[in-house]
Write a structure and sequence with these properties.
single chain, 330 residues, nine-stranded antiparallel β-sheet, alpha+beta
């Protein structure tokens, strides 16, 4: 998506340096509570990730603010930035790195304080310039984290893929803050640190585009959408038809799998079809609320997009697939 200038959202960043890939229902995350979200275009000398931590530990908020761009400063004055930064990280003496993802010439970092309560998310470009900074308090849902689906699922893809968002906390899975998509996954294909080759505005440049999407478990198809255009140029998004082209499969036990953002016209099943695990459902695309070609996969307790509750998946052969995991499926 292309929302990174908004101080209200973590669903951000430009088409080439994307951090967000897509969203099913609108998220309700820490960003909507009381965030400081920053799109930064350096106006002073840049600093590296470890220096950012040092500056926060030393409470040198003026130095950090000096790098922030005009879009942020229009929303937040220096005193507001200092107030929020101090609220989350005053007297912090150390941070734990939770995630580091390098993709498309950008580096995403996520840290927590020693107690795992206050968090920092930041993005740096290939030259080490700070582009994005986000403070929040860690959300935790231990009851649903501990529960798994009754159905055992296999991965809905073949070949080599990369987990961009996935896992049971919001630092590695931005879906986590929203009940409707808490345990969803965004899967892409990465080669040599990039998710595309060639013109980044063209869907066909993305390695994931057109890849087969498979049924993750046996069940009955209960919903199909197949006529929504893929977003073009890449970086635009369809916020009116959030899931884009998608398939929903009923597995019984109140468990429904979602396969979203599929390529227009690629869906090969219809409502009422009974599918086996591994049956082809469609092709990976870039339709709906999506910033580039990827597969949004999740399991939920109903086929109602906006009112469902996401379920943590019981995977065959794995406990979970967290952000940064490279997957190889024969």
């Amino acid at each position: 998506m292309n929302y990174f200038l908004s101080p209200k959202s973590l669903m951000l960043l430009s088409v080439v340096s994307t951090l967000t890939l897509g969203s099913l229902p609108a998220t309700v995350s820490a960003a909507s509570a009381n965030p400081v979200a920053v799109a930064a275009q350096s106006q002073t000398s840049s600093f590296k990730p470890d220096q950012l931590l040092q500056l926060l530990e030393q409470q040198k908020y003026d130095r950090i603010y000096g790098q922030l761009g005009a879009a942020y400063k229009k929303e937040y004055a220096l005193k507001d930035f200092k107030k929020q930064a101090s609220l989350y990280h005053k007297n912090a003496t150390s941070y734990k790195l939770v995630s580091h993802v390098a993709l498309n010439n950008t580096h995403y970092y996520a840290w927590t304080d020693p107690k795992g309560v206050n968090t920092i998310q930041a993005m740096f470009d290939s030259k080490g310039k700070l582009e994005f900074l986000f403070f929040s308090t860690m959300q935790k849902y231990p009851e649903t984290d501990a529960q798994r689906t009754k159905t055992t699922f296999q991965l809905p893809i073949k070949g080599n893929w990369f987990v961009f968002w996935g896992g049971s906390n919001e630092l590695i899975n931005y879906h986590y803050g929203a009940e409707q998509q808490r345990y969803a996954y965004d899967l892409i294909v990465v080669n040599n640190g990039f998710s595309y080759k060639g013109d980044p505005k063209k869907n066909e440049s993305y390695y994931a585009y057109g890849k087969p999407v498979l049924a993750a478990a046996a069940g009955k198809v209960v919903k199909v959408v197949n006529d929504i255009h893929d977003n073009y140029p890449v970086g635009t998004e369809n916020t009116e038809q959030i899931a884009g082209n998608h398939v929903i499969v009923d597995h019984g036990n109140g468990e429904f799998s979602y396969y979203a953002h599929l390529q227009k016209g690629s869906v090969s099943v219809k409502v009422g079809d009974v599918v086996k695990v591994g049956d082809m459902l469609g092709k990976c695309g870039n339709s709906g609320n999506s910033s580039e070609a990827h597969l949004h996969f999740e399991v939920a307790n109903s086929a109602e997009l906006y009112t469902t509750q996401s379920l943590r998946v019981k995977w065959k052969g794995a406990d979970d697939y967290e952000q940064g995991t490279y997957i190889k499926v024969p």
